[in-house]
Amino acid sequence: MASGYGLNGGPSRCFPFWQELLSCYVINGGEEDDSGKKKCVPAMEDYYECLHHRKEAARVKALQAAYRQSEAKKLQENPPRAGQIRNLGLLDKEEDTKKVLGSS
Fold it and tell me: What subunit structure does UniProt give (predicted)?
């Protein structure tokens, strides 16, 4: 977890965040007083985000949902014409379909 070594032998991607969190705990933490640890919450959030990418995943999910909504809205506002569908081989293109499939 916080050994500092990555898969290729170098420092892991989250090791700098771990060092920052550890130094914050050393500076602000005490055995009998836990009020200093509250100062380390941003460093801890950064470290956990580096490990698990939850905020990044939530943001990507929200962006994808917004993109899908905008694409669906574009389709509703500007549906494909019959000619566009015909070009896909769905309507009145039996000859083209036979050519593609190789049947006579």
Answer: Mammalian complex I is composed of 45 different subunits. This is a component of the iron-sulfur (IP) fragment of the enzyme.
